[in-house]
Amino acid sequence: MAARLFLLLDLIIGAYCQVSTIERRNSRYVKLPVVHSTNKDVFSDFGDKRAITTVPLANRSDVAYYASLDIGTPPQQVFVQLDTGSFELWVNPDCSDLAGSADVRFCQAVGHYDSSSSSTATQLAGSKTLRYGIGTAKIQYFSDDIGLTGTDAKLKGVQFGVATETDDEFAGILGIGHGINVTTRYKNFVDELADQGVTDTKAFSLALGGKEEQEGVIIFGGIDTGKFTGTLKTLPILPAAESPDGVPRYWVNMSSLSLTPPSGAKKDYVNETMAVFLDSGATLTLLPTDLANSIAADFGAEATDANGLYPVDCSLNDLPGTLDFAFDGVTIKVPYNEVVREVRNAFFTQCYLGIMASDDFVLLGDTMLRSAYAVFDQTNNAIHMAQYVNCGTNEIEITKETDMSTIKGDCDAPTSKTSSTESTSSSSSSSSSPSSSPSKTSGGNTAATGISTPGASTTAQAGDSAATTPDSSSSRRRVEWCLGLVAVAFWAAIVI
Ligand SMILES: *[C@@H]1O[C@H](CO)[C@@H](O)[C@H](O)[C@H]1NC(C)=O
Ligand SMILES: *[C@@H]1O[C@H](CO)[C@@H](O)[C@H](O)[C@H]1NC(C)=O
Ligand SMILES: *[C@@H]1O[C@H](CO)[C@@H](O)[C@H](O)[C@H]1NC(C)=O
Ligand SMILES: *[C@@H]1O[C@H](CO)[C@@H](O)[C@H](O)[C@H]1NC(C)=O
């Protein structure tokens, strides 16, 4: 009798185990929330409570995007900035180097990894200096297990950097650009996900989420069809050799750029192919000067301010127009309220165009990407893109067999804002949308990571840096310098 019971139990356990392995094998994707730096609900649950409650997170950038990792054994939770414009993962900025006490507390609150408290940590030979547009991080390589917070996905023995010294960095950075044999000699985070079977392919989809949503989602190895409308259109990633800076980034051809103003009279700015790269780590979108000036003029800005930004009327936030970025077969319509940045301090609210002039470096940053749903597919060397709309959640796995062109979003096309006033309206809109401020996080760190230069490390040692990546050009340095200045000026303006 007892033997039979055990046999039965055995069968039940056996069946259960088989089911659970099958389930795991059937869903090789892992989802992480993308947290906006302004999201008080998330950040207030975390870290040093006293620090968090006194950090005016809501006054910070609307444009820095974080995901949470559990590093080591036992796990230590660390928030890192998601950056499609760089290639390596590192943690532990030196918070003491930051100028404002609020920044210091924010930096401390994103979490800290202590290798000596992790039983699975190994220090590796090799260090490196990572240079971003603004800011640098000197790192020592370590290897440790990394879990994706809130999921059962766990990576063993991942190589990443622990900062020994940083300048102008608010949080660690999770570079999700190309890794092994392209920009690095070791497997980066995206490589490890595929290598260790958490995902079937080296692809991830990114929905940053609108300014008002305060949260987005990144799915490694999967797609959420509840986050876009229409079918995903496949755009080949330009080979590094054919890209403007020769660095293997998420470069694609943009075919035209136009404006659909509230009046509906469409205006084309560019009617020729232009290479742009998609950079979640960059706050602003950078376009050639003539183009940026033309767009700015249509938003009522005749010139840039001393920081190189185009001041615009905040009432534009309430108007139903869109700025339309067209690619082969898909147009991403960016509503005015996503392209206009609202900057608030204790005394007044100032609005700026989320676009800056740059003749050397053209990139689509957060001000454009919030309106797109994009699958970054290294396996097929392509970006699959559609218009972002949030109508729920429906996750599917990406396998090597997945035909992206057949994947259709569940959402209806976005409904344009109904406008009660024409563009002459000067009513203040400062109370209607989420507050934001141009902290260094937005102007500096993010723009910075966008134009990180993989070849610019100064202390790279054997086995760490890529053999293939080119040096940073002087033109790029100029953009970096320029953005740095903007960030510093912005920060000074806020602090004073
Ligand atoms: C990277 O290159 C090395 C040496 O050429 C090769 O052995 C290895 O398989 C490559 N790895 C990947 C993931 O392509
Ligand atoms: C991108 O555009 C350039 C210039 O029109 C063209 O030569 C190139 O073939 C295009 N590349 C891709 C991958 O579409
Ligand atoms: C852009 O190109 C298309 C097709 O080549 C043409 O029909 C259209 O008139 C052009 N628009 C402008 C503003 O040049
Ligand atoms: C944050 O914003 C609120 C309201 O906009 C304002 O009262 C407060 O002074 C701001 N705090 C800082 C540190 O700028």
Automatic annotation (TrEMBL):
Protein name in the entry: Peptidase A1 domain-containing protein
PANTHER family (alphabetical): ASPARTIC-TYPE ENDOPEPTIDASE, BETA-SITE APP-CLEAVING ENZYME, ISOFORM A-RELATED
Domain Peptidase A1: residue ranges: 65-386
GO biological process terms on file: proteolysis
Region (Disordered): 405-474
UniProt KW keywords: Aspartyl protease, Hydrolase, Protease, Signal
The UniProt record lists the keyword Signal: yes
Biased composition (Low complexity): 414-442
InterPro entries membership: Aspartic_peptidase_A1 (IPR001461), PEPTIDASE_A1 (IPR033121), Peptidase_aspartic_dom_sf (IPR021109), SAP-like (IPR033876)
Ranges of compositional bias, category Polar residues: 443-471
GO MF term set: aspartic-type endopeptidase activity
Signal peptide range in chain numbering: 1-17
Residues annotated as the enzyme's active site: D83, D279
